[in-house]
Every structure is written in C-alpha cells, then in structure tokens.
Design a protein that fits this description.
Elements lengths: L1 H43 L3 H25 L2 H19 L3 H22 L3 H4 L1
Helix pairs in contact: 1-2, 1-4, 2-3, 3-4
C-alpha cells in the first residue's frame, strides 16, 4: 500500500510539473508569435529600420528564453529556432522582403511545433 501511495504521489508530481512547464512554454510561444505577427505587418509596409529594432528585441528576448528552455526541451527544436533567427536577421539587414516574410512564417511554425511537442497529449506521453 505504501508503494502504491508513493508511486501515485510521484506520478502526480511529474504530471503537475509537466503541466506547469507546458503552460509556461505555451504562454511564451504565444508571445513570440504575437510579436512576429507585428513584425510581419511592419515588414509588409517596408519599414526596415523599425523592423530591425523589433526583431532585435525579439532576438534578445529569445536569448533569455533559450537559456531556460535548454534545461527542459529538446535541443533540436531550440537549434532550429536559432538557425531561423540567424537567417531572419540577415534577411532583414539586407532588406529582402520575400525571404524575410517567409522566414518569419517558418519561425512562427517552429514555435508552434515546440508548443505542440510539450503539450500533455497521449501521443507525447507514449
């Protein structure tokens, strides 16, 4: 009976921790997607200087988030976001509108993938 209670308690702690982590990742990814959507609108208007400043803020924020996520998340997804951030930086600096817009959409998709991979679903549990 003690073993059952102990195992149940451990399972509750694991599931509770996973839920807390998911909520944190969900909130952060939603914030990044919202900021990237604002950046898209700025780029569509070809306001390159403003877009560069906006992306710089997103990139700085990502550096802080990245340090936290590396503890809990797969490094593959984090590396993909890093690569996409680097490409986006170059596309904005060279004022390449089509590639900038495409890479920002890819970056948004990468954040969606991270959120889905951390969701508390049967697929992720198994």
């Amino acid at each position: 009976m003690k073993a059952f209670i102990g195992i149940s308690l451990v399972m509750l702690i694991i599931i509770g921790s996973w839920f807390f982590l998911y909520q944190s990742v969900k909130n952060q990814t939603e914030e990044y997607v919202e900021n990237l959507n604002r950046l898209l609108r700025t780029l569509e208007d070809e306001q390159w200087k403003t877009a560069s400043g906006q992306f710089s803020q997103i990139h700085d924020s990502w550096k802080e988030t990245r340090d936290k996520w590396t503890i809990f998340l797969h490094h593959h997804e984090i590396d993909n976001i890093d690569l996409s951030m680097a490409r986006t930086t170059q596309y904005i600096e060279t004022q390449n509108k089509p590639l900038s817009l495409a890479e920002i959409e890819a970056l948004k998709q990468l954040f969606y993938i991270v959120r889905e991979n951390e969701a508390l679903t049967l697929t992720n549990i198994l």
